[in-house]
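Cross-posted from the bioinformatics board.
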Amino acid sequence: MSWNAALPLLVLLSSLAPGVLIFAIPESFRRWRTLLNLAGAVLKVALVGVMALGVADGQEFELRFPLLPGMDLALVADPLAMLLVVLSSVLWLVTTVYAVGYLERSPHRRRFFGFFSICVTATVGVAMAGNLLTFLLFYELLTLSTYPLVVHRGTDVARRAGRVYLIYTLTGGTVLFGGIVWLYVLAGTVEFAPRGFVSGLPASEHGSLALIFLILVAGVGVKAALVPLHGWLPRAMVAPAPVSALLHAVAVVKAGVFGIVRIVQNVYGVEFSLDLGLTPPLAVVAAVTIVYGSLRALHQDDLKRRLAFSTVSQVSYIVLGTAVVGPLATVGGLVHLVHQGLMKITLFLCAGNLAETLDIHRISEMNGVARRMPWTMAAFSVAALGMIGLPPLVGFISKWYLGLGGVEAGESWVLAVLVVSGMLNGAYFLPILYAAWFREPPPRWPHDQGSPGRLETSWWLLAPPLTTAFLTLFLGLLASAPFSPLRWVQFVGGLVYEP
Amino acid sequence: MPQPGAALLVVAVLLPVSAAAACFLAPRLARGIAVAVALGLASVVVLLAVELVAHGPLEYRVGGWGAPLGIDLRADGLTLFMLLAAALTGLPITVYGLAYFPASAAAGGFWPLWMLLWGALNALFLSGDAFNLYVTLELMGLSAVVLVALAGSVDALGGAMRYLLMTLTASLIYLLGVGLLYHQTGVLDLNLLGAALQGGAADALQGGAAALGPAWVALGLMCAALLVKSALFPLHFWLPPAHSSAPVPVSAALSGLVVKATVYLLLRLWLDVMPPGKEDLGTALGVLGAAAIVWGSVQALRQSELKLLVAYSTVAQLGYLFLPFAVEAAHAGVAWRGAAYFVLCHALAKTAMFMTVGNLQKLGGSARLGELRHVARQFPVSLAAFGIAGITIIGLPPSGGFLAKWLLLQASIGAGQWWLAVVVLAGGLLSAAYVFRVVGLAFVEDGSESAPARRSSAAEWITLAVALGTLALGFTAPPMLRVLEVGSPFGEPFGGALLWEPGGAP
């Protein structure tokens, strides 16, 4: 096997192998498990770095293994794949550090870290899938490996959330399965192509193609939390903080959104989707989701639930950018894939810090909390302001391109959606910031767990959100430096339109 | 002049049958003999696969007498698949049996009967003659009945009695059908029967359908008998009590292999013997299969006893094997390939599931779902095995069951038979409901004191290994489906609208 074929496999194995090994070593071997986790995560980032440099250099990384006659398991590191691969491996490293600190005293750590590693493997597999069959394989693997993490606490609430999660995602997966096979019967292939592979089918099949588009998008729309398929996400917040942070803010919803991007760009092709009249309704669904998610977020007192509805809203920016046809909108949507991940993981990690250190779960308990935990709240504030779209943070970059794209495509209503959503973002984030920084704290924190040393909480819990908050600022400032997500996305966006 | 390698066909039958006699005569050696034979049969299947790929279908005329008088043993790709299913599940069942049955003489009854059952299965897969098939059916049915009764409990004896009455009655009906056919055509060999009837169909076009009427009566009797034995809804009444009261290795063999053997026989009749004009029968079988999937799954959801849940799951999963009968002829080949692969995957998965039940019963003291709530988390390996086997049962990737369902779906959608596609997909969701009902138990934290950590037993690791096998089948389909093509059991090769080359650009 050549290096270019082996590398995608190694990238997968760098998280799969530690996951399997973690199941094999006893619960009490804490140091070994931490070592394995961190070694896998660091190795993955290194391998992905090498692969990204290679892809930028024009090299092709591709691995194929036949699963059925005429159909392969295909791992292809194309530029779009690298976007999600880099994002998830960097954030895996960050979250692993965090999870080691977070689960310090809790039971079943072996099970947790084992499935956590498999989840990351599945996400990276979703990213590198070279055809719909491979996509489906990793998409379902993601469902199976997140279920144990959602029910991790084993309480009745957690198990109920797990059941809801399965009902939504397995139904979505089943619908997707049906759609993919139908498309295969019609087109004879399910291999992704830069500008889609179905535009050559006779016009008599266009009706079926439109219906299949609906089925496929509905299937992946469950994980992308498109309204009205979003019901599982707020419930799944019962999972431990690292799960909410990495999986529900990044991996699972991103797998769904990434599916929509693949379907529009690499199955149907952006321009052909528009010709069939498929993208305008999708844009409307995305706009509705953006506004609806923000409206629901306004009324949540539970911090994680507010963040969850915010995720519902923010993730659909990516869908909106994909569904508005034009190079700038595509760039805005895709770059938000990275930017939203950075900001949202910061927010969830900070929420986890509050819960773990002070047992604070509700926004009404957050008065003056910034005096007790200034670093945590500083990170939270940077990410929240980014979400609102304040320059020069990364959220601004996304919204700028989305707005430009809307105007370029002649869909000026996109601007209105962005403005309304920005205001709503402010309406549900700014009161939190105000309460945390300017309200009087209670005389003492009732459930303060204390912290080792002079830090406000354990270093393991503090470093990860600070890192991602820093990136939120840094990547916004250097948005047009080489190798920034924006630059990369401009490169990707160039591939999906006719030159 | 027998073909080189054709002797393997005889070995596949004689080895387990003579081992049965040896186990009976020397009970002390029975365990060793059984393991050796299981390994031997596994190697025979591998050698046979090599032989088939190299030389095409094999035939062995026992004693040099050919059809229509002698006993012919034949093997094509489909036969090999069934032999493989028997070996793949038989080997772990044998090893698990070592752990399950104590070494004492009292528990020795299992080994000779199990060898006999395996021999009967192999003989059934290899026979190509309607009467010999009757003999193998009887042999298989009777050894299975005694194996069920081995458990010795009142439930087991009741289940075995029901099973016995069913299998004897069905065999007699089958024999009646064979007799009628012989009376009309004067032959018993399946190929000759097929030639006679399908040739007769041409005459019937002139002579009116009446000419084939008696043949259809005979075939109808044979089909009915096989349907009862295959426990196709609504003729499944005997299966749950028998499969759930038997000793665990027996349950695994019954659910994994025995019920499928009769489906295999039905398929042979369908493909090789039945004259044209069978579309309505096919649709009826497909509809019953669909009903079985729904009914069996719903019943599985309602059970409070884990072993009954798994048994009803078998009723449901068998339904998938009947769907291809309803697929329009041009696409049926793809569906049958899916069904053949399904047989392998389901056999392994169901074996792992029954083994899980056995582990929980033996180690946890009970397999009632209500009581398992409190103890399930002490058996992570067993529950993991159940979950992994469940992936195949649900039909999720990466597993063999997923690939099988892909082919079934592809055939149904290709033929434009949407109701079949819906049944295949909905069946997956229904099975997810009962699989996760069990798997979810592993995560319960009800505040009760956590029991001291225990070491997982050998039986649990065997169970996990079998379950992992179902995942492995998710990656081995292309070479295995190539072997299935030997002798073209499903007519034209896997092609037509389909592509053979990896990469698959049209």
